[in-house]
Amino acid sequence: MSGNKYEVALDETWELFGQYMSGAHAGLCCAISSEPLSEAAETALDSSLAALGYGREACTYIVSADLDPQALFVPIEGLDPICIVAADGKSAALLGQAYHLAVPPGKATRLLGRTAVSFLDFESLLKTPQDKQIAWALLKKLPKFGEKRG
Hints:
alpha/beta, Uracil-DNA Glycosylase, subunit E, six-stranded mixed β-sheet, 6 strands, 39% helix
């Protein structure tokens, strides 16, 4: 074990909540969904994050179906991502309860200094080219990796 307290917190987060999490061990982005995202949705999100400079496989996925607001807050803070994506309305509502802030669908917001975007149903936006552009427009509200936010 290293002396890095952040690495210890990250490892503990995976030990405690690993059954709800998948993807990158130390993701720069955390995507929350009420049900597991399809492989196509994860690929689309990974590609979008790569286009924003985060690299491939930069996302940790959390399935929130069995979590209460406090139980969602703990792994997000343990992961300490740069940004957060709520993939559906249920996960956005739970995220809002966890952070005691409104997380409006279709918009970007700030959660303890992180940019978060929220979809009503990210999966459904992958069905047509026009809807993919709507999803991409919202994802572009996330900061580009390395971009300073004030």
